[in-house]
Amino acid sequence: LAGVSSTTYFARANILDTSPNATAYWFFMPLSLMLYQFFAVRHRFWRIPIVLAALVDWLVICLTFCRSIRLACALSFALLAAILIGRTLAGKGKALRVLAVCAAFVLVLGLSYKACAWAAGGVGLLARSAESPAEAAEAAPAEAAYRPAVSAVTLSAHPLSSGEKAVYSDPRIDATGLDSISSERLTVYRAVWQTLREHPRILLLGCDPDAGMALVNAKLPKPVVHCHNFLLQCLLLAGLPGFLLILAFCVFLLAAAIRLLFSEVQLTAKLLALPVLSSLLFGQFEAGFFNYTDARTLFFYLICGLLLGTYYDVFSVKRSAEG
Predict the structure, then answer these.
(1) Tens-level pLDDT at each residue, the chain (323 residues)
(2) How far apart (Å, rounded) are the C-alpha atoms in residues 241 and 205?
(3) 112 with 74: CB under 8 angstroms?
(4) What does the radius of gyration of the chain's CA atoms come to, in whole angstroms?
């Protein structure tokens, strides 16, 4: 509640005035842990406060209007639904289980993503209904001034636009077009690749963060503070040597998480894979991991350690039993 700030003409959750995207992941951390706690708690009575806290936490995530975290949450809920359906149909035929798991995953993935928009829209309606006529009149000029930028801005003169229109879309509405859905991140990625082609020395030695982003921003219609992809950010800052180390670690994490999901292990062990996979998806649109030392990165390291510790415990026990 203390972290709501106004951007453009509507309010977004923004803790400590950092950014709504960082705020979204900060609240995704406890949501992931509460999901784990819900199934791990011994006394079912404690599930009631966990659910209430999780609902409030999820609502704050919705009010950040961050598409990246909506994807991460949707993936977590979809994987959870698939796991539960698979366990429920454990005694059924394999074809039925696969069909049911896939259907549950796709259905929950779509509904979870849309539910964030519905919840935030409901809160917005309540807020507008509580506004006085004077407050509504004061906000109207700002909204009218922002609307043209929401629809489309022509950038045909820009070298990366190729005659296209870059849509600076309102994060509260569903965008159309791949670049618009990604909040113009594809344009940023193209600028990074073009920078690397023009300065191949960066691939060997990396570069200073400020100098690297200055080169990227020179190719963009509006400046950005990072590459909006943690792997591209690592490639820009650490070159190929650092990038390959990070990529190898992420591939190992991905393999461990998937193996836990598809193995006959306890439900709580499988749940540790959800925040790791969702965080890796979130990192494809943000640059916090391995590049900053704030709560997002520290939580990511913590949850990776929990996953890998559980992975080694589970499969070392299995190897011992088989031996």
Answers:
(1) 455 655 555 677 887 777 888 889 999 999 999 999 999 999 999 999 999 999 999 999 998 888 899 999 999 999 999 999 999 988 888 889 899 999 999 999 999 999 988 888 787 777 666 666 665 566 555 555 544 443 333 333 334 443 333 334 555 555 555 444 556 788 889 999 999 999 999 999 889 888 889 999 998 888 888 898 999 999 999 999 999 999 999 999 999 999 999 888 899 999 999 999 999 999 999 888 888 777 788 889 999 999 999 999 988 866 666 65
(2) 8
(3) yes
(4) 22
